[in-house]
Design a protein that fits this description.
With 113 residues, the protein is mainly beta. It has a domain of 75 residues. The chain is 8% helix and 32% strand. The protein has 1 helix and 7 strands, in the order ββββαβββ. The protein has a 5-stranded antiparallel beta sheet, with helices on one face. The N and C termini lie far apart (39 Å). The relative contact order is 0.28.
């Protein structure tokens, strides 16, 4: 465990459409079986604003982190600001851990491109 710092629990927001109109609204909660990856862009698990895991440049399925694996890491050191950050083309979003297995959407943007 590392020393806890004070951090702000940001309010959860409702997911809106991201990217193309065919993509549908973004999830309000990151699922346990969700994969932390965007393919082209940036995806990572952050603790107190610093990345502890990032999507590899040439990933295979075994190299990718799931929501369940992120939860296991966060549960070992829960007194920190844990976030899943996804920045892809036309869609960006950030999920913050608000308790055990509760990763809520706190930010959504237009991504890049």
């Amino acid at each position: 465990m590392t020393k806890a710092i004070s951090w702000e629990r940001k309010p959860a927001i409702e997911g809106k459409h991201g990217g193309c109109l065919n993509c549908g609204p973004r999830l309000n909660q990151f699922p346990a079986d969700g994969v932390i990856a965007v393919g082209f862009g940036y995806a990572g698990l952050h603790k107190d604003g610093s990345p502890v895991w990032t999507e590899p440049l040439n990933p295979n399925a075994d190299a990718l982190l799931t929501g369940l694996q992120a939860e296991a890491m966060a549960a070992l050191d829960p007194e920190h600001d844990w976030q899943i950050v996804l920045e892809g083309p036309l869609s960006g979003r950030t999920y913050q851990r608000h308790g055990p297995s509760n990763w809520v959407l706190i930010e959504q943007n237009m991504g890049f491109a």
